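#onboarding

Welcome to the new folks! Below is a worked example of what a typical request in this channel looks like: someone posts a single protein sequence, and someone else replies with the predicted structure as tokens. Don't worry about understanding the tokens yet, we'll cover that in week two.

Example request:
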Amino acid sequence: MSQDDAARIAANCRHYAMCKIDFLGTGLCPSAGLGNFVTYYPQGRMDVYHALAEGRIPISERLLDIADTCTLCGICDRQCYFVTGLRPMRVMRALKAEVARHRERGDVVFRPPVDDVLADLRRVVGDRWASNDPALITAYSDDPCPLTPPVPPRYVAAPRTAEEVSRIVSICKKHRLPFAIRGNGSSVMGFVMSEGLVIDLNRMREIEVDRDNWVVHVGPGVSAFDLQREARRAGCRVNTAEPSALVAANLICSGIFSLFSATYGIGADNIVDADFIGPDGESFTTNDPKGPNLFSYSPRESPSPGICTRVGVKLHPVLEDEAAVLVPFAALPEALDFARALSVRRIGLAIGIVGGEYIGTFLSPTDALSFRLKEVFSRHLGIGYLVLVIGDASALSAVRNMVPGVIDNRLFRILMLGLPNLVENEWLEAIGEMETAGQPFELLTEEGMVPVLEAALRPCAETLAQAVDEDLRSFFVELYTREEMTDLVWLNAFRILSSRMGRHKHVVAFILYVPLDKPAVIVEINESFKRIGDRYGIRNDYGFITPLDEGKRAVFEYDYYVDQTDEKERDSMRRAMPDVAQMIQSFSQRVTGVRWIRYTLNQGLCRSEQLLYGDGRS
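Example response:
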């Protein structure tokens, strides 16, 4: 492997921070607990090597430590390949080799000076947890967002308590030092960079379950995956976003939405209370009558209310008879009507409409297979959209009575584990020869098709593993032997497959609230996103829709895909953004109920009623 290959892989790190959670049961990078800064995780080492390869940073004291503490255990390869298809072990070896050459030459090791600001920070958090070392700083300097340039901070600090956060804010005020808050380094929209200080809250990971009060209190360093796992141990569920996303940050920034938002709601619906350190360094809570009103909403860009140091999140019961089905549709209008009918009737706990891009990406362990599957679903089976419904036995019985057929979890498992054979010509020819009065996908749900599919697709972990790199096949066999990896309820509660959305290219998600009782408007918005993306040569596709509040409103996501290492594609995205913004603004002005999540930033705790139904007055 050449240094160029390693540099290319490093430059393609998506910053989705999945290497910071144990989502595959592999354990975490052994050195992660030693440093806790982003730089000590595989994501950070990718950034370090990328900067080193481009000559942007010297070999420093912390860089030596970062390279030395890597054990080359291979956990990062398994995790990152599952999500992005990248092989970061090649970068880890290259980083160690570069450090070894530096030592062999006897070259100077850079030692950054300690100034007054750094000395003040270290008096609060300790010498190890505040630094201006270039190797640490580089992991906090940029992200894949095509709209924002790199912004290296002067310092990074990692407090352990709310009291330390308060003292750090006071130091920033004293030195007139700007700061930004960062959790696990997974932000991908340029919001968490600063020319001054980056405060990394990753060390604040307390989780306290209060089952009697149906609430769990968490620190700002707690990820969605880790919180969901803890809630599951208590026999409960929480409404969370992407698995590596930090719960407190999500709530404060834009509010949490998922397919479970169809029942659990958004915004303030998800919280019980929250503690903050304000811009002046003083503390306040959401229950403080003298504190700022974080439950209000104003449709304009708003400043951060402060640093959330603890949040109480609602717990929800998990039913013994929960299961999931997928209902196929050829076109979006029919899928919208069905999803709204479910929501209006309060059928199901989680409801979501996913399209071909999500279907292919979620099911497939590789890019090549996902592109092929998307074609098979649309061209050969006539599946344009799938409505996912999670519910108890009564809810799913109602769903079955409303449609000709469903893909239940048994059939889903067959399709997923038999995927390499599902996309083969022999199977497709066989499907093409079968006669049906309806859509081709109705063949899949016919009674008696299960044994036929099992014989044709030979679904098992070994079959699926044939699609991945040869040296990882035994790991994928072990992984997909686990029942949860093909369990629709588990996969949607923990959302580990959603991280694959940026596998081919970095995904830029546009999220709107839309009126679900006006399906023609939603279809028009969807088509408008596509026209703009196509006009600028940007790969694009429909994302998902989740009904809200008995089908009155919905969350709608549309995705653009950009190669973060290609300046032409980044420029195309920058040129497309004004058109996208103008299009969304136009819909917002003429259609009641259309709201862009851009104006929800830093208002994530607002009352959902005001966000969804307010007249827009402040």
